[in-house]
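Checklist before submission:
- one chain only
- standard amino acids only
- sequence pasted in full

Submission:
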Amino acid sequence: MTRFFLFLFLLAWFHNSYAQTRIIDSLKRNIAMARTGQEKIQAIFRLCEERSSLNTDTLTAYAMRAKEMAARQGNRLNSTWCDYYLSTMALKNGYFDSTLAFCDTTLKALETQKPDPRLTTCISLLKTGALIRSSRFKEALSLLYSLLHDEEKQTDTLSLIKIKTSIGWVHMEMDQNQEAMNWFYKAAQTSSNESFFRAYPTLFSNMSSTLNNLGKYDSAFYYVNRSVAYSRQTEQLSMLANALNIRADIHINTKNNGAAEQDLAEALEVRKKIGDLFYLVSDLAQLSNFYATTCQTQKGIQSAQEGLSIAYKQNLVAKLPFLYRALAENYKRMGDHQNYAATLETIMTLKDSQYKKNSAESLAELQAKYDLQKKENLIIQQRFDLRQKNYLFYASLLLLVFASLAGWFLFRGYKRKEKLKLKQLQEEDKIRAAISINRAEENERRRIAADLHDNIGAYASAIRADVEKVLVQDKGENKRSLQNLEQHSLEIINSLRDTIWVLNKENITITGIGDRIKNYINKMQPSYDHIQISLTEEVRKDRRISSQSALSIFRIVQEALHNALKHSRASLVEIILHSDDTAWIRIRDNGGGIESGQTLTEGNGLKNMRTRANEAGFQLHLSSEPGKGTTLLLDIGTTN
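Returned file contents:
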């Protein structure tokens, strides 16, 4: 009865007498109803887009039919599309070199013609598929990155999702699972429109397979179920079979053999429905191995024999060794040593037939190897019991080696962690030492400031008080000298206050300097009531500078303001304090300026200002015109 149903299945596959999906059935009717040649070709192309659900012969027949029509019309673009669909079948059947040759030739021609950007993208993705299956991962990534750059300009969302998924696929094939997941997540974040992912469920299958490899089974189930659901909705049978096989692997890893068997059986039925015999026999071999693992040897033997029947009838010689190995494993699990040995004998015979296809020069060597394997096969049964005893010994030895390696790696990791801890402690000691030094310096500055205030400041104040008493009593010649002495003592006190102001702080802000300048202006203004003094603050970014630099700025402003008030004959002195990405101070008066014949470098005041600016790393610029006043610009720069 089983052979009868198998015969009906093969007969249906050869004649395409059934509809594989409702979509395919509808598309075939559209082809039959098309009136013009161009309409018929476009209808065939829409059918070919369902290639994941079409069997190879059906797609090849329709693509060849469209190619003949395109040749009669002289339409080179349609002919290229036909070649593309035929090459997808070549790739599916394992003809990687032929696929790459077509892609390289066609892409080179499309570089100059550029008739259809979508065609270029499809052929490029086909080429990357061939490169990945040929293990040429570096070339595949190079092409995909270039393709991604071009497609981002075109904003074709579905193509972007496919390209990012393909990049993740390359990393998955190289066992770089985390990097693969990064790219899969990028693909999933390309759009929030579910219709794109419904049209391309392969993304979620790949995500699930990678998460399964990482041992994240809950997440793997979530994504594979989405892939299965979308594949069913869009009737993409090949993708559905792939998703079911992946879900079966997850079930096996989570010890749910019943669900795994159900998914494997359904995937097998889907393969039969699309007539993809090449993958059908692979699925039968996988199912047979599953049955052997779960000790369902009768089912395993039946699956392997069914696959062998199809493989022999379709001349799928490459699949025979896999099927016979699955069959042998089931016999071995069953304890049927006679059939186990006979199956191994058959495997040897298959290898012998493959040897005969090689060159005559290597035949003798291969024949000798085959004879040796054949003789070894005769004593397999005798060695079987002995091997079981040896397995325990070798397993124990291997476990010991692994334990030793694990211990060595753990010890190495421990030493590395200890070194890192030591280095971290040393860094922390340096930081604590630096903090202690800063605190000591801060305490020393405060102590000096307190000493200046309590000692020298007190003496200077006492001198001034005594001079004031003497001035009140003295009406004679010494009054002028005493007034000078009073002024000098007042300047000493003011200078001490400025120095103490600086010493009390480690860093001073621009606004703090501005406040100090305001206090100085308020003290000077009563003595020069005929001159208007203004301060404008343009502080968008308040900066912190060192106390020494702050004192230099204040002294330069003092000197510049003093010169303007005493020597410029001005009625207005403007001070602008600016702080943004850069900081600067400008002092400008409307006085007489520097007369012709005088130089800008005269006077100790200007020399002192330049010296202070140079020591602090500032730039000092002075400009003047006779009758138009003098401008001094102090460029503080970007020092923070």
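Reviewer check: The domain at 508-637 is CATH 3.30.565.10 (Heat Shock Protein 90).
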